């Protein structure tokens, strides 16, 4: 069946406009579950706010759960950000690259998450605000079998709950 009547074309155009309008959003970038006080340019107590203000990832050397000096600086910034938003809780995720067994990487990811959590607690963050989880090599950030990808996957990621 062909729809050649001009009314069908107009109806199709109107329907397409409604679909496009329904897919657009008037919310500004970074809006979401905001539980703190914001200032202009501040993304608030959101994942985007943490990433922009402090960074949300710390990276580790191969087979290591020892924080680097750069990782410590990131966590210091996260502790300052958490002090600004006292209602926020985080889950620190431990991740690994694709090498090693699943069991080994789950244990290494757990040590990485706990290392970051312990450092945040040493900086005065209430332990009750921090959870940990290990994903081992199951949720890679970068897909690839090269040093660049592996380096991006050896991380502790702080997720705003």
TrEMBL record:
Part of the Tol-Pal system, which plays a role in outer membrane invagination during cell division and is important for maintaining outer membrane integrity. The keyword Secreted does not apply. It is found in: Cell outer membrane. The Tol-Pal system is composed of five core proteins: the inner membrane proteins TolA, TolQ and TolR, the periplasmic protein TolB and the outer membrane protein Pal. They form a network linking the inner and outer membranes and the peptidoglycan layer. This is Peptidoglycan-associated lipoprotein. It comes from the Bacteria. Residues 1-29 form the signal peptide. Keywords: Cell cycle, Cell division, Cell outer membrane, Lipoprotein, Membrane, Palmitate, Signal. Residues 27-38 have a biased composition (Polar residues).
